[in-house]
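Changelog entry

Holo records now carry the ligand SMILES as an explicit input line rather than a separate metadata file. Below, a converted record for adenosine-5'-diphosphate, shown in the new format.
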Amino acid sequence: MQSIAFFNNKGGVGKTTLLCNVAAYLALERKKKVLVVDADPQCNATQLLLDDWDVYELYEDSKSFTVHSIIHPLSIGKGYADSIKPQKVLDYGVDLIPGDPRLALKEDLLSKDWQDAIGGEIRGLRTSFLFSELLERCGKYD
Ligand SMILES: Nc1ncnc2c1ncn2[C@@H]1O[C@H](COP(=O)(O)OP(=O)(O)O)[C@@H](O)[C@H]1O
Ligand SMILES: [Mg+2]
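Structure line, unchanged by the conversion:
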């Protein structure tokens, strides 16, 4: 499986737009199995891919499966999340792990555990490997 990340420190330069269009191109034109992971607490990719009502329902229910469902168990010392439940986005041909505004609350944890990981501390390593561990479990995607 290949993973592609879109990163630029500057806001408003087209990361989210590019991400969603590249994902849809790979899925619809190149027939690839694509998983979009929205790891931005602004959740603009989620808002672009889903329609307004689905976004409303998603965030109305605090138990919806989002990127928060993956990081929250780790942040309370319960390790990696058991199961991953992406949702299908038919119009774009992709699966999606929606973003979550609550991810903003985890940024301190991510940066602190990164420091601890450098010191070889187990919890820090676990946190820092969160997303690579997630990708390893997504072998059915291209
Ligand atoms: N290629 C483009 N040409 C013109 N406008 C664009 C282009 N790509 C993105 N935009 C617009 O620029 C704004 C910011 O894009 P966005 O993808 O949200 O940026 P980022 O994710 O980097 O913050 C949006 O209003 C978007 O519609
Ligand atoms: Mg964006």
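Spot-checked after migration. The mean pLDDT is 92. The pocket of adenosine-5'-diphosphate (ligand 1) is lined by residues 11-17, 44 (CB under 6 Å).
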